[in-house]
């Protein structure tokens, strides 16, 4: 009976991998759709929106991967009070790069095949659905309410998306 009541120990690296995946997907969805929405509302041509999105995805995926690698490696060194292998940090960086890059394709893809007037709401909708799904995954992995996590992820991410959209509306009138 005692074995059943003992908490399950999870390796620190597994926690880092999950945290990085959730952060990479969420940040990519929110920042990509926020930027694309803001630019689309400012009445920029579809091709420019798409090219801007591609540049954003590659630059940010690499930047986030480098930041994840460096912060994870520093945290591991700190925890061990010595320099440690870069294996976990490298995996964390790779997870960040791939999760950011691939998740960003969700809000970007509508601009590849649809007019801006169709792509804009589709991009936002697909991103909100993906955020909801990410919340479900996070809830499942953590063993807490999947629905609560999904709603929280969609609401918080949706708020950030709204900021990008409002910034586009505001900046549209500047020039």
TrEMBL record:
State where the protein is found. Answer: Endomembrane system
Record key words, sorted: Membrane, Transmembrane, Transmembrane helix
Q: What is its main location?
A: membrane
Record-annotated membrane-spanning stretches: 21-42, 48-70, 91-113, 119-138, 150-170
Query: One GO MF term, please?
Result: manganese ion transmembrane transporter activity
Q: How does it sit in the membrane?
A: Multi-pass membrane protein
Kindly state one GO CC term assigned in the UniProt record: endomembrane system
Q: Name one GO biological process term.
A: intracellular manganese ion homeostasis
Keyword Cytoplasm tagged = no
Q: What name does UniProt use for this protein?
A: VIT family protein
Q: Which organism is it from?
A: Candidatus Doudnabacteria bacterium RIFCSPHIGHO2_01_FULL_50_11
């Amino acid at each position: 009976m005692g074995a059943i009541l003992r908490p399950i120990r999870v390796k620190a690296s597994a926690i880092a991998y999950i945290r990085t995946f959730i952060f990479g997907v969420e940040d990519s969805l929110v920042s990509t759709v926020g930027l694309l929405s803001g630019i689309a509302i400012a009445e920029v041509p579809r091709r420019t929106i798409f090219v801007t999105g591609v540049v954003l995805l590659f630059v940010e995926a690499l930047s986030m991967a480098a930041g994840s690698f460096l912060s994870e490696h520093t945290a591991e060194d700190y925890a061990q009070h010595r320099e440690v292998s870069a294996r976990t940090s490298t995996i964390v960086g790779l997870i960040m790069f791939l999760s950011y890059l691939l998740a960003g394709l969700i809000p970007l893809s509508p601009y590849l095949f649809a007019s801006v007037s169709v792509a804009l709401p589709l991009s936002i909708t697909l991103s909100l659905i993906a955020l909801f799904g990410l919340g479900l995954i996070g809830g499942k992995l953590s063993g807490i309410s999947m629905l609560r996590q999904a709603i929280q992820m969609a609401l918080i991410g949706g708020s950030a998306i709204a900021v990008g959209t409002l910034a586009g509306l505001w900046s549209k009138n500047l020039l």
